[in-house]
Amino acid sequence: MDITQERAEDQDLPFNVFAKACPSRGTLEHVTGRWGGLTLGALYEGSLRFNELRRRVDGVSEKMLSQTLHALERDGLVHREAQPTNPPRVDYELTPLGREVAERLLSLIHCVEGRMGDVLAARERYDGTRGTF
């Protein structure tokens, strides 16, 4: 069954990401945005503290990681656990819903990583033809 057939069977779902006002759009943005997808993928490996997560998601600023974690926590994908220690310790981990979403994202990530040779070749072909117009 292809994705179009699956979508046709899901017409009775209460949410439709293609509808302008559907709240699922915001969650899709949080999950598929650069930092959201990488954060979910990193947390799939296990619970991490903020700075561990920041090191794992190379290039993300403190501000962007904090905003991303807040959005993912609000959507029920990430659980934040603050330990009453001195200094305070905060751990982040995926919820069951977050694990399900991360598994699907990691499948896409592995597909893209595995096909980067093809992507780079396509870019080279595309860039080579851009000068002929």
From TrEMBL:
Region forming the signal peptide: none
Pfam entry (one): HxlR
Domain of life: Bacteria
This protein's record includes keyword Cell wall biogenesis/degradation: no
Entry's transmembrane regions: none
Keyword tags: DNA-binding, Transcription, Transcription regulation
All copies of domain HTH hxlR-type, residue ranges: 22-120
Source species of the chain: Streptomyces asoensis
Record has Cytoplasm as a keyword: no
Name this protein carries in UniProt: Helix-turn-helix transcriptional regulator
One GO MF term: DNA binding
